[in-house]
Amino acid sequence: MFTLIFLPFRSDAGQDHTILSLLYLLPVVLSSLLWGLGPGALVAVASFVALNFFFVPPYNTLFVHSTRDFVVLIVFLGVSITIGQLVGRVSKSLAETTAREHEAIHLYELTMHLAGLQDEQAIVSVLAEQTLITFRASRVDILVEPQGGAPAKHVRLEDRSQPDLSLGAMPSFITPLQSARGFLGEIKIWRDPPTLSQAEERMLNTFASQGVLALERVRLSEAASRARLLEDSDRFKSSLLSSVSHELRTPLATIKAAITSLRSQTVEWDTEARADLLAAVEKETDHLNQLVGNLLNMSRIEAGALKPQRSWNSLAEIVSSTVERMRQQAERHILEVNVSGDLPLVPVDYFQIEQVFINLISNSTKY
After folding, report:
1. pLDDT tens figures, 182-223
2. So what CATH class is 117-221?
3. CA distance 263 to 138
4. Which residues lie closer than 8 Å to 359 by C-beta, 6 or more apart?
5. What was the pLDDT predicted at 70?
6. Closest Cα to residue 131, out of 217, 213, 216, 205?
7. pLDDT at 73
8. For helices 37-55 and 67-114, what crossing angle results, to 10°?
9. Is the pTM of this model over 0.70?
């Protein structure tokens, strides 16, 4: 195109080809800037041939009669190739810088969205959404394998603006979610074109690494929470057993003393005294049975076996039954009950709520 433009002015140029040489550098610069080093060098050679063939006498031939023209052509070729290489490198560097800037922006957005998330399902959803947007995919499918008792996490997102994919379409590429502890899951991506540049491949691997770090962070946090709960549970259990073991001695000592007294041959107990001793044995036996029942219930709660059997019950009836059972234990205290008679029925486990009231009254009489 440049040759066609300059050809009508060939006679005006005469023997001075400096201006034409400079003008022919323009397509070299443009091609290097737009298409890179290779096309720039190719255009430099083509410009050299065109300048020699059309504008250096004798015209329409590659022979050069003048030494001056030969030197001009050689200098033009060297300068054009050098400028083309420099411009091409600058263009390539600019493209790489722009790509890295975009990569940094996408990674920043992903990191900001993942920061603070404490749920694996939310992490997988954010990772799938950012992957779909960043890689302009038509479909993204992320599966995280189940761990322990937790179910698998699965998210599939599709870009509705792109053509629908068939159910049996194979993914364009699959990236594993791999941690130091093993395989966590995988990312499947469908897109057109089904290829990735080196920068995109590097960014996808970084996305996968960020997702793995977020998942590991949540799992480590959950493990730490479970460890703290177990530690608190063990500390509570030790304290409870220490307290209960002390409480167990009192009814056992009372029962032992009463039975020993009844079996003693040295003392003749009258009917009233025997009744008092037997009543003490009965009372402490009930107390002992309550303590053992509480220990069993605690074990069942820890094992997850104590589940409420809810049914419609009257709170007034439950309170009345509790007061009747605890009357003897609370005989040295004033126990006032004020229950409205128009309370509706409530869906509760009768025996568990009764045990709550029993524990409440028992603690009140002790402390």
Report:
1. 888 899 988 887 788 888 888 889 999 999 999 999 888 888
2. alpha beta
3. 89
4. 294
5. 66
6. 205
7. 64
8. 160
9. no
For the chain, what is the mean pLDDT? Answer: 79
- Locate 208 and state its tokens: 């996968």
pLDDT at residue 22 is higher than 70: no
Omega before residue 194 within 30° of 0, cis = no
Give the pairing type, strands 153-158 and 311-313: unpaired
Give residues with Cβ within 8 angstroms of 217, minimum separation 6. Answer: none
Q: pLDDT digit string (tens) for 130-173? A: 989 888 888 899 999 887 667 888 888 888 777 776 666 788 88
Burial class (CB in 10 A: 0-12, 13-18, 19+), 341: exposed
Closest by Cα among 116, 96, 107, 154 to 134: 107
What are the tens digits of pLDDT across the range 96-112? 777 788 888 888 888 88
Residue 19, pLDDT score: 63
Q: Does 58 sit behind a cis peptide bond, omega within 30 degrees of 0 on the bond before it?
A: yes
**Which residues, 6 or more positions from 22, have their beta carbon under 8 angstroms from its beta carbon?**
none
User: Coil, helix or strand for 101?
Assistant: helix
Enumerate the domain spans of the chain.
Answer: 2-103, 117-221, 308-367
* Alpha carbons 259 and 73: distance in angstroms, whole number: 127
For position 186, what pLDDT does the model report?
92
Give the β-pairing of 311-313 and 346-348.
antiparallel
Query: Which of 218, 160, 208 lies closest to 188 in space, CA to CA?
Result: 208
pLDDT for 297 beyond 80: no
- 199-222 as b/e, with b when 16 or more CB fall inside 10 Å? ebeebbeebbebbbebbeebbeee
What six digits make up the tokens of 139? 């479909």
Element (H, E) at 266: none
Our CA dihedral for 16, 17, 19, 25, rounded to 10 degrees, sits at -170
Mean pLDDT of 270-287: 82
Sorted by sequence, the CB contacts under 8 Å of residue 335 that are 6+ apart come out as 323, 326, 327, 361
